[in-house]
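> forwarded from #structure-qc
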């Protein structure tokens, strides 16, 4: 081999070794998060990764009850952000959790098309009104039914239910398709196109959605990704993460 080729080979090997070392240092943090957190968590991804070189956030969004079930069945993730405490506790029955904290609040509202003539939650009990609800096991569905119970409207509104969605985004999708006249969903899920609007529930409904997160142990020795997961949890709870949540319409933790 000529000296030039030998030098090129050594440089190529050094480059490959350098790239390999970079990849080995990069840590992927898998985050399971409630569907309603998609907007703010995606907005957090870039600033967090910029502040933590070598860390790659892998975000997975679904109904909290589905994510809890997946964790109970052994799915690997370093962090779980749930729309309620109950699903975090379900996951904790099978997995070791740490660093549990409430990081945001939200409110259930009556969501209707922008041109709707419905005026409030009592209208959802009127005959012929098509109502979209999330499953009772889904945090959004549970919060909605708690509010209806407090207002003594649950039986009449459930009689008008035409859809039972697996997460809150399913409720919004049914409304956008024109298949329901109203739905009970989080106030943060209206979107920005102006096609939907929210009718607040009376204060007597007394329901506040509390979002909790926790780190998840995956067995064996501690892994560098565990430290990165702790850093992301701190980011969510810190000033920058909280500002992003406020911008998305979430309330502060109690």
């Amino acid at each position: 081999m000529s000296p030039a080729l030998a030098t090129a080979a050594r440089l190529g090997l050094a480059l490959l070794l350098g790239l390999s070392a970079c990849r080995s240092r990069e840590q992927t943090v898998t985050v399971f998060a409630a569907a309603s957190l998609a907007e703010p968590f995606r907005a957090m991804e870039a600033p967090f990764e910029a502040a933590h070189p070598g860390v790659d956030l892998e975000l997975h969004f679904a109904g909290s009850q589905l994510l809890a079930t997946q964790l109970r069945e052994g799915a690997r993730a370093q962090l779980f952000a749930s729309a309620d405490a109950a699903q975090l506790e379900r996951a904790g029955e099978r997995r070791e959790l740490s660093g549990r904290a409430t990081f945001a609040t939200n409110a259930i509202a009556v969501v209707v098309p922008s041109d709707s003539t419905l005026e409030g939650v009592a209208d959802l009990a009127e005959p012929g009104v098509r109502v979209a609800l999330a499953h009772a096991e889904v945090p959004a569905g549970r919060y909605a039914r708690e509010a209806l119970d407090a207002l003594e409207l649950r039986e009449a509104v459930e009689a008008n239910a035409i859809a039972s969605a697996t997460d809150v985004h399913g409720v919004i999708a049914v409304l956008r398709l024109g298949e329901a006249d109203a739905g009970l969903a989080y106030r943060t899920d209206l979107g920005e196109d102006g096609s939907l609007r929210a009718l607040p529930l009376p204060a007597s409904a007394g329901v506040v959605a509390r979002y909790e997160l926790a780190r998840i142990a995956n067995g064996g020795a501690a892994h560098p990704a565990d430290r990165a997961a702790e850093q992301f949890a701190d980011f969510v709870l810190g000033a920058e993460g909280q500002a992003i949540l406020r911008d998305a319409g979430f309330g502060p933790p109690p």
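QC bot note: The domain at 108-205 is CATH 3.40.190.10 (D-Maltodextrin-Binding Protein; domain 2). The chain has nine helices and ten strands.
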